[in-house]
Structure formats: C-alpha cells, structure tokens
Predict the structure.
Amino acid sequence: MTVLSPETAPRGGGRAAARFHIVLPTRSTAAPELPAFVTDVRPALTDPAGRTAVAADLAGLAGALVPFDPGGQESLTVAANVLRRTRHLRVVAGFHTAAATPVYAAKLSASLQRFAAGRLGWRLAVDLDPAAARAQGDFLTGPDRYARAGEFLTVAKGVWHGGPFEFRGDFYEVAAGGFGPPLSAPPFPEVQLSGTSPEALALSRRHADVHVFAEGDDLDSLLPELPGLRYGVHLASLDHVEEYAGRGVTEFFLQTEDVYHLGEHVKERTVAG
C-alpha cells in the first residue's frame, strides 16, 4: 500500500493521499476481582495501546495518536513503548504544555527520535477544561495559554537545532542552551495543533505542520485561515471520509477496536484511487 509521508506531502495545492491514524487507548482494564480461592492464570492485558498499535502497523495504517488523557497513562511514555513495538507506524503523543519544560520535552523527544527513525510527532493540548488544567497543576487561563504554547514551541525548536540558543519570554528563559550532535540530528517532531479560536489559528500558522479539526467544524471558513498546512479531522466513522478528502483533508483520526477492518478500508481506497 502506498501512503504519502509527512515529508513529501504537498503544502497547499493538489490532492494528496489520505492517511489514516488510529487513536490508541490510554487506560488499561482493571484486573477482575476474584474470590481468594481462585487463581487467575491468564496473562495480564496491561498494554492495550501496544497491541492496538501493532495491529495498526500490520494493517498498513499510517499512524497512531496517543491522546492526552489527564486520568490515563502518560502519553510520551506510551508513545515510546508503541514506537519500540512497531516498525513503520508514525506515533503522535498528545501532551499538555505545562507538563514539562520545553527543553526537557525536546530532549526526551530527540532521544526517542534517534531510537525510532524519526517517527515521533507532537499534539499539544492547549485549550484544556479549566478543572482538568488545575488538576494538572496549571492555573493559566485565557489567551495566555496560547502565548505560552507559542513560546514552548519556539524554545523546543530552538534548542533542538543547536546552540548557543538564547531566549527570554514571558513564560520561559533559556541562556546558552541548545543540543549538540547526536541529539540535534533527528528531525523535529511533526507538530499537530487544533482549535478554532483566533489564538489557536494564529498558533497553527506559526508552528503547526497539521491542523486537526473536530467533525462538524466549519472548514469553509477555517481553511482559508490556515494556508500551507496539512489538515486532519477526528471522525466517529468512515462514512464522511470522501467528503472531507474532497475538501483537502488528508489526515483522518479514528477510534476503533476493529483495526484490521479499518486497514482493509484503506487498502480498498488505495486500489480504487
């Protein structure tokens, strides 16, 4: 099956091949409570994300998303496991910008990129529900969240590409920073962003490779605000893939337990195209 990689996808103009991504589970099923006299010898199903990712890799899907889940497993750790278990799948980790400094996030990701042939991407969670954000220790609100995310990406990209890197902003400061080889050698993670507010669109114009919409967003008014990017959408089913593909969307994110059925659809679509 032929899919278009992020490096070769056209940036504006021309219809690109559709790429399908599986949304991975972020929580493991709790062990059943059994009577004390019962011994459960079945293997523990502790890695649903890894099993789903392996199935997606074998089914020929383009990628997998580990979404940011405040009550679930840490996404970059899950992404590292998924990258280790797969060979071709591109893996995007969703995380909150307050979870770590941009320098630490960049160093961790540079290490993962080296071990995974550059298959890691980032999905920044910026516009969190206030209660969820406070539960993560983050009390920043309003447009400042997007200003901080912009500085986060500026710093992460700056240190990634070597030094000495200097930065002084409202949220971060770096003095004589920057990575040397081999950390600076891998490609920076593909950046996926979302949101429909003016602040979200402005952040994507500055930093995103892919802007991801929700099903039902008004693409007619939003796409002209995001020239030169690739577009993605989260779908509940495959029913509207062709409609969105005809409007320029190339990245489709679906959550399903039937990964192989999705892979068969991708193969059928590739043959038909």
About this structure: The mean pLDDT is 89. Strands lie at 19-23, 63-66, 90-96, 120-125, 165-168, 173-177, 190-194, 210-214, 230-235, 249-254. The chain has nine helices and ten strands. The radius of gyration is 19 Å.
